[in-house]
Design a protein that fits this description.
This protein is α/β, with parallel strands linked by helices. Helices cover 51% and strands 12% of the residues. The protein has one domain. Strand 1 and strand 2 form a beta hairpin.
């Protein structure tokens, strides 16, 4: 569970911290969407998630669980029941190449100073990967101890397993890490660490938006120029959304599916909602089931 929570931090950053000014506010706001039409014999559902949050803020609405109950398959970004994926999660935070060997003495000194704000130092983090550093941002942004952190996907997964649902993943850990590496090299991650306070504020805003099911605001908050430029957005959101949208039809064709993905993946010109609509599916926000 500890490794899953750590992975959740990285996933949270890969799917919850990307923002720009809102354009053409979309009134179709919901954390649950029904997918029908285009030859489907039974509706499928897409749920926008918030990967990790404090227990005090944590809630899974009844309609989410009802949509999962109606579905034959539970499909996550990563299949946490796959032993190979779990091994990959355990390995991704460590590296054989020390951080200090990748930096000049001046850069190493600067990073050590930055890490002090996160309650650690370069000596302790020297064998960490860029993803290990990246996860520190979310750990600091969460206003509660790790013992009070809940994972949205893990709660859904436990329910799916209890009800003997088939479980699949839309991508591999390696795919997700490649996306993060493409978007943020070591120096870019260090630049993000410098903005810890801004992330704390952004995190609070997105929690509030998620509770209101305002997925449009979450998407908007995700694309702040300080946090994500156009190239990074392509790697973290657009390319992954397009890959998933290519896989989802075949999954839904076989049996009804419940897809759980970070809320920021739903909206926008290259969001899951619009991509599936362009393939001929009918998608509508669910108010109740």
């Amino acid at each position: 569970m500890k490794n899953l929570i750590k992975f959740g931090f990285a996933a949270l950053l890969s799917a919850t911290f990307m923002t720009a000014n809102a354009q053409n506010r979309n009134t179709e706001n919901s954390t649950v969407w029904e997918v029908s039409g285009n030859g489907l014999t039974k509706p499928s559902y897409i749920a926008g998630t918030f990967h990790v949050m404090c227990r005090q803020d944590f809630e899974i609405k009844p309609k989410v669980m009802k949509a999962l109950e109606k579905s034959d398959q539970f499909v996550m970004e990563i299949n946490y029941t796959d032993p190979a994926e779990m091994t990959a999660i355990q390995k991704m935070y460590q590296t054989d190449k020390k951080l200090s060997d990748q930096l000049t003495p001046e850069e190493a000194k600067e990073l050590n100073k930055i890490l002090a704000d996160y309650g650690t130092d370069l000596k302790k983090m020297d064998n960490s990967s860029s993803q290990g550093l990246y996860a520190l941002i979310s750990m600091k942004a969460l206003p509660c101890p790790q013992t009070e952190i809940k994972s949205y996907e893990i709660e859904l997964l436990q329910n799916a397993l209890k009800n003997k649902k088939k479980v699949y993943g839309l991508e591999k850990v390696e795919d997700q890490m490649n996306s993060i590496n493409k978007a943020y090299n070591l120096k870019a991650v260090i630049g993000q660490l410098k903005m810890g306070k801004e992330y704390e504020t952004l995190f609070k805003e997105m929690i509030t938006a998620f509770k209101k099911e305002d997925v449009q605001s979450i998407y908007t908050s995700f694309r702040n120029d300080k946090i994500m430029n156009a190239e990074q957005e392509k790697a973290m959101l657009t390319d992954r959304n397009k890959n998933w949208a290519e896989k989802m039809p075949e999954i839904m064709k076989k049996e009804s599916a419940f897809f759980a993905v970070g809320s920021a993946h739903l909206m926008g010109e290259n969001g899951i909602i619009k991509l599936l609509r362009s393939k001929g599916y009918t998608l509508k926000p669910v108010s109740s089931l």
